[in-house]
Structures are given as structure tokens and as C-alpha cells.
Design goal:
By secondary structure, the protein is of the alpha+beta class. The protein is built from 14 helices and 35 strands. It has a 17-stranded antiparallel sheet that branches.
Length: about 750
């Protein structure tokens, strides 16, 4: 999540520019049907009334449920004053009549952790808003909603049961074997539409049940939903198949011409795939999943409009929650409408030819797509892009009292110069210099000295115009190169009881692969958490702190704090970051709020840590740059580049971060007692007395040289000063005459 489309661009705005977020790669070939990604196109019929209706689509609400729960500190309400899941369903209720929204489809991953009742309660409360308003909906279980038991849907169906589903006016039935799949029949102006929802990894019995529904309602226009059907390639545009999706395609979609549209989530991104079924007709498959966007999805949902008169299906991806946020918390990622490929689009679809017996209502409905966009344009002002000033030199940053360590990279080395064993990254705060360690020790193999090089590449907001780059790390071979602080370095045992601010500039190598580099760490602290007093947390062999990248290239800040027992949470970026682009990362621990918040390019991420104080240290062990550890052994080698890194012993705000420029020092202002600044005359006046200074200008010329705005005042003061000077001179002369007269009298006596 941030960002500056950050030095990495986030999957937000959202996912509007997702292609640049995940990194552009050559898409895999698809040898099935011809691929047609959705294009943004105006709806030509939008100005005229037509027979229309719309449906709402809710993709992957898992993070909304998790981070609105009390157990996570309800981070949404604390930061924004509202919760996105509840905002989505309330918007549907409030605007159903305006946009003629007849039905809502949830695509699964209702919660993030199946065994956490508080998350289910958040989800239940949000969906209850639809129930209370009589707004029908379908729902299904995603992979996060099931467990690994022989009855995987039990928890899901305990919260979203058949009895609960029956409260929907459109409900047909649940499958008898698992109760995880459901069917609805929606009637619009006399025309039935069938909605089939298949929960995660539906078995053959589930598919057979769904096929039975299709056979029971032949020719009824059908929308089929599941959590996973199609995926999206690394270019974030091109749709690609999945194994489960192809099973569904082959059994339920291609042979049944009535299925004309599908929706799924699960795979991070958005795309649309127009495929051809066995009858030679188009089927439109839509992927919509915004969970990796800013703020866990930023409340994005879909409004899908069906224009039966003109034969158009239109989708707009938007966020009602973004429009609710207080203005002071908005960031450039808070775009209310997403217009990226596969997100908002129009597809021509000839309903009348596909379904000859189609019943349509009177052509009197307004265009929901146009109305929604007009409303947002008139009522929401998106934040302007960030404006940053690049550093002008090595001193162009804010110096902060309490800086414990400030590691800077050499700037006098040519790109690609090897940083040999023994090379150092200096700490200009003093005492915590990093030194490159000997290669292939402590279980590391396959490393070479030229795996570490200096570079002049750097983040534009860093005042340190250099970096250090690591290459050829491989977790499978356990190849890594790294730097350590020396034994006895002051930072080794610092636990930061007053909080801290940790900043770093980093970029991932384009050579990153999940197989070789997932969970690589670029900054860590040695030791084993299990050695901390009172430790009862997760894996006891994890180090007390590691800054790492996940399999999805999410930024993970994993740490243990100083409490007894220690808290050992993680902060997650949630945003998929781009490779080979510098980003600025900051972690701020505030003991007053007991929060540890991570920022990606200045934007706070959603998944942060609550109830935390300080940072644990174990046996004065070193800090490590370029790798991590597990069970006390070196591993998790990093590939990429690291720039300057700083730790301050208390929380500081962004105006003091390394991305801020040095304050401009104004020249001193004259005070009431300050002497006037002399003004050089245009030409010197001759001395009245030979041998005296002739450079002083007379009072009237000094007045003329004064600021024009003060000329009148200066002239008056100059005249007054001249009179005072004359009087003073007369007084001095008169005094000298009296003194001389007294001296003569004394001599006479």
C-alpha cells in the first residue's frame, strides 16, 4: 500500500494503473480462445431512456472484516472514522432506487481468518444492512472462509446459513451436500435472471448440483460467480485461465449457452475476458479483486448495468467509502472511480438475439453508469498528486535530535565498483558502522565478493546520492552477502523505550523470483525471539526484527517489542510494489498510542501493529544489512539496492523525515537595538578636516538610500538626527569651554 505512486506504484488508483504496480512483464500466451481485454468505452445509449437495471458487486472484503475488528484495534474507524465494508452495503441500501440496483453479488473471502469470530461479526453486520432493507444478495465462501477439514464450509455456513439465505426474496436453494453453494432467481420487469454462486474449490458434487440448476432453468440468462475462475497476467491486463476455472468452463459455462457473464475475485487485479462458448456465442468473464490496493481495497466495488434495449453491459469500479473519508486523511490514492483497463468498461451484448424470448420493461430507465459518474464528479474532489522537492546535496535533509544511527552510502564510487569484504557503510551519527562480512560463512554458500557493489543510483528524495546493491542471493542454496554492526556497537542493545522512527530507501532487483527470493530481508536484527523474557508468541526461531519482502513483494516489517510477554506482530504494506524502483519506507513506533505504523512513500499502510512499545534486542547481537536469520543462522539474502537508513529514538512526523528538505535559514532580522546597516554612498564626500575619514555619507544621502517604502519616515528621522547631532556638538563644545575655564582658574589659584 505506499504512495508518489511511491517509488513503486501501488496497486491502487488503484489498480487503475495496476500494470505499473506489479511490474510490466511479457504476458503468458493463452492458446484457448482469443483474448479480448476490456476497453474503456462510452455507452452510446446513456443519454436516452432505456430498459435498464443494475447489480452491485462486492469483491474480497477480507481485510475490511479483519481490520475493522476489535482484535486488530479497528484500525479503519481509528484512522478514518468509518469502515469500508459497512460503507459499501449502506451505499447500496441508500442508492438502490437511484441506480435501480436489484441485486448484490459477493465474490468470496468474506473474512481474512476463518477462525476469528470478530471478523465474521464485522462481515455479518455489514451484510445485515442489505437484509434489513430487503435488498437481495448472493454470497459464497472464498479460500479464506474455509478450513482444511472434511467439512470446510462449516464455519462459513454457521454465519451465512441456508436459513439466512432464505430471507432473500430471490433465493432458490443451497446445495444439499455442503450448503456452501447457492442459487438465486431474480425477476426484473417480468424477466428472470439466474445467479449461481460456487464456493471455493467446489467438488464434483457441487458442480453437478449447479448443472442440475441450469438444466432446471433452461434458457434463463445466467450469471455464474465463484471466488476463482480467471486470473490476470503480470502485465495486469491480460486474462489467463486457472485450473478450477477451466473445470467450471468445460462443465457449466461452455456447454450452457444461457451463461453469459461470470465474476470472480481471489487473484489480485482486474480484467475482463470475452470468450466463445460451444454455441459460438460470447461469454464475458470479469475478475475484480482490490484487496492489494491502498487501505486493503479502499472500499472499491462494482456497479454493473444491463441495458437491455441497446444491448450493452457496463461496469464502473468505484468506492463509496473514499467519498466518506475526512478530507484531512485523503491521499492521492483516494480516487473515487477506477478507469483502468478491466475495471470500468462497456461491452456490447445483444440480449435479444441471445435470448429470443427476453422480456424487457418499458424504455424509461435512466443510465445508472452516467448518473454515478456525474454524481462523483460533482461531489468528490480527488486529492492532487504529491509535490516533492529532490535533494540538492548531502546536507539537504532535516537533522533530528535523538538520531541513534544514520547510515550513508559512499558517493565517490563508480557504478558497479565492488564493495569488498571489509567495506563499510558509515554511521555519521557515530559508533554503529556496518562492515561487510566474510563470504560463505555461517551456513552461507555460493556467494562471491562481487555480489555486492556500490551505485550512484538513489531515491530522488534522498540527500545521500549513493547506494549499495546486492546480487545473486538465493534462499534455496542459502546464498547471501551482508554487512553487520560490530560487537559492542551502541545500537546492538538499544530497545528504544521512548519509541522510534526507522527510515530506509530500498528497491527490489528485477531478478526477484518467488522461488529464489521470497521473504528476503534487507535489514534485520540478530537473535531468536524465543530467548525474550516471557515469550509466548509465534515461531520462537524468528529474529527480533526483520524488514522483508513476501512472496507477493509486499513489504513486511516483522518485530518483537519490549513488553513482557513481548508482542510480535507484523506490519504489511498490502501493496504489490514494483521492481527496480526506489521507495522510501518508514516505521514509527509511538509509546503514547502504542501503535507501530509503517509508511510506504509517505502513505500509512492499513495492516499495522497495535499495543506495541519499543524494539526487542537479544544479547547485544548485531544489526544486519542485506540478509536475515532463522534459528540464529544467517539466511534470507537480499537482492536489490539499499540507500541511506536512519533510526531516531522517538517518533517524528513527516516534516522531519529524510524525504523532507533542510529548513531554509532566513537572514537575521534587525532588532530595536541593532545598529542600522550602513549604505554605501554613490560618491564619497570630501573630508571637512584633512586626515579624517571621508567615506561617511551625510545624513541626507543615507536617507535617500533607504527603502523606498520607508523614505518619508527615514527622511524625518534623518532630519531629526541631524538636529540632535548639531545640538550635541554645541553641548560638547560648550562643555569643553567650561572645563577649560575651570582649569585656568585652578591654575591661577
Amino acid at each position: 500500500m505506499p504512495f508518489a505512486t511511491h517509488a513503486r506504484k501501488l496497486m491502487l488508483a488503484g489498480l487503475a494503473t495496476l500494470a505499473t504496480v506489479v511490474g510490466i512483464a511479457a504476458p503468458p500466451s493463452v492458446e484457448t480462445e482469443a483474448v479480448q481485454a476490456a476497453e474503456i468505452a462510452p455507452v452510446p445509449s446513456c443519454d436516452a431512456p432505456a430498459s435498464r437495471f443494475s447489480m452491485a458487486v462486492l469483491p474480497d472484503t477480507q481485510f475490511y472484516s479483519r481490520y475493522a475488528a476489535p482484535e486488530t484495534g479497528d484500525q479503519y474507524t481509528n484512522r478514518y472514522g468509518s469502515q469500508p465494508f459497512a460503507a459499501q452495503t449502506q451505499w447500496i441500501v441508500d442508492n438502490a432506487a437511484t441506480y435501480d440496483t436489484r441485486f448484490t453479488m459477493h465474490l468470496g473471502d468474506v473474512v481474512d481468518q476463518v477462525n476469528h469470530p470478530e471478523q465474521w461479526q464485522v462481515a455479518s453486520d455489514a451484510m445485515e444492512k442489505l437484509e434489513d432493507a430487503g435488498q437481495p444478495y448472493s454470497i459464497l465462501a472464498g479460500n479464506h472462509d474455509v478450513d482444511g477439514s472434511s467439512t470446510p464450509y462449516d464455519t462459513y455456513t454457521s454465519y451465512f446459513s441456508k436459513n439466512r439465505a432464505e430471507q432473500n426474496s430471490t433465493f432458490l436453494e443451497r446445495d444439499p451436500q455442503t450448503g456452501g453453494h447457492e442459487a438465486h432467481l431474480l425477476n426484473v420487469d417480468g424477466q428472470d435472471f439466474l445467479i449461481l454462486s460456487l464456493s471455493w474449490d467446489a467438488n464434483q458434487a457441487g458442480l453437478d448440483w449447479a448443472e442440475g440448476i441450469l438444466k432446471r432453468y433452461p434458457g434463463v440468462p445466467t450469471i455464474l460467480n465463484s471466488h476463482q475462475l480467471i486470473n490476470v497476467a503480470d502485465d495486469a491486463i491480460t486474462p489467463i485461465p486457472t485450473d478450477f476455472g477451466e473445470r467450471v468452463w468445460n462443465q457449466l459455462i461452455a456447454p450452457y449457452d444461457q451463461v453469459f457473464l461470470t465474476f470472480n475475485g481471489h487473484h489480485h487485479g482486474a480484467t475482463e475476458w470475452t470468450r466463445t462458448n460451444n454455441a459460438g456465442n460470447p461469454v464475458h468473464q470479469v475478475l475484480m479483486d482490490y484487496q492489494m490496493a491502498y487501505a486493503g481495497g479502499n472500499g472499491y466495488m462494482g456497479l454493473v448495468e444491463f441495458d437491455l434495449t441497446n444491448g450493452v453491459i457496463s461496469q464502473t469500479s468505484f468506492s463509496p467509502w473514499v467519498m466518506e473519508k475526512p478530507a484531512e486523511v485523503l491521499v492521492p490514492e483516494d480516487q473515487a472511480v477506477l478507469d483502468g483497463a478491466g475495471q470500468s468498461f462497456s461491452i456490447p451484448f445483444d440480449f435479444k438475439s441471445r435470448f429470443p424470448n427476453l422480456v424487457t420493461g418499458a424504455a424509461q430507465d435512466a443510465c445508472a453508469t452516467g448518473q454515478l459518474r456525474d454524481y462523483i464528479a460533482q461531489n468528490y474532489q480527488a486529492p492532487a498528486p504529491r509535490e516533492h522537492t529532490s535533494a540538492t546535496g548531502p546536507e539537504d535533509y532535516v537533522k533530528v535530535d535523538g538520531t541513534v544511527a544514520h547510515w550513508i552510502m559512499p558517493t565517490d564510487q563508480a557504478d558497479g565498483t565492488v564493495a569488498p569484504v571489509g567495506a563499510t557503510v558509515e554511521d555519521i551519527a557515530g559508533g554503529n558502522t556496518f562492515t561487510r562480512q566474510p563470504i560463505n560463512e555461517d551456513g552461507i554458500v555460493g556467494a562471491a565478493e562481487d555480489d555486492v557493489t556500490w551505485t550512484t543510483s538513489h531515491h530522488p528524495l534522498s540527500a545521500n546520492f549513493g547506494g549499495v546493491c546486492f546480487d545473486d542471493a538465493n534462499k534455496n542454496i542459502n546464498t547471501a552477502s551482508y554487512f553487520e554492526t560490530a560487537a559492542g556497537a551502541p545500537i546492538n542493545d538499544d530497545t528504544f523505550p521512548n519509541g522510534y522512527t526507522l527510515e530506509t530507501f530500498v528497491k527490489i532487483s528485477p531478478e526477484f523470483t518467488v522461488e529464489n527470493n521470497a521473504w528476503m530481508a534487507w535489514l534485520s536484527r540478530d537473535g531468536k525471539r524465543g530467548e525474550l523474557p516471557g515469550y509466548m508468541g509465534g515461531d520462537a526461531d524468528e529474529p527480533p526484527m526483520a524488514f522483508a519482502f513476501s512472496t507477493l513483494k509486499e513489504v513486511q516489517y516483522s518485530f518483537a517489542d519490549t513488553q513482557n510477554p513481548p508482542r510480535d506482530p507484523s506490519a504489511w504494506s498490502g501493496e504489490i510494489v514494483n521492481t527496480d524502483q526506489w521507495m522510501h519506507l518508514a516505521v514509527v513506533n509511538d509509546p503514547a498510542t502504542k501503535e507501530t505504523v509503517m509508511y510506504v512513500d509517505g502513505v500509512p499502510v492499513l495492516r499495522n501493529s497495535t499495543d506495541t512499545i519499543g524494539l526487542a534486542a537479544i544479547n547485544e547481537l548485531p544489526w544486519v544489512m542485506g540478509a536475515g536469520s532463522y534459528a540464529g543462522a544467517r539466511q534470507s539474502g537480499f537482492i536489490g539496492c539499499i540507500g541511506e537508513t536512519r533510526i531516531v529514538d522517538h517518533p517524528i512526523d513527516q516534516e522531519q523525515w529524510l524525504t523532507a528538505r533542510a529548513p531554509v535559514v532566513a537572514p537575521p532580522s534587525p532588532t530595536d537595538t541593532a545598529s542600522p546597516v550602513p549604505v554605501e554612498p554613490t560618491s564619497p564626500m570630501p573630508s571637512a578636516t584633512p586626515g579624517t575619514d571621508s567615506s561617511a555619507a551625510p545624513a541626507d544621502e543615507v536617507v535617500e538610500a533607504a527603502d523606498g517604502d520607508l523614505a518619508g519616515t527615514g527622511q524625518a528621522l534623518g532630519t531629526f538626527g541631524l538636529i540632535v547631532s548639531i545640538v550635541s556638538a554645541i553641548a560638547v563644545v560648550f562643555g569643553l569651554m567650561l572645563l577649560r575655564r575651570r582649569q585656568l582658574r585652578n591654575d591661577a589659584e
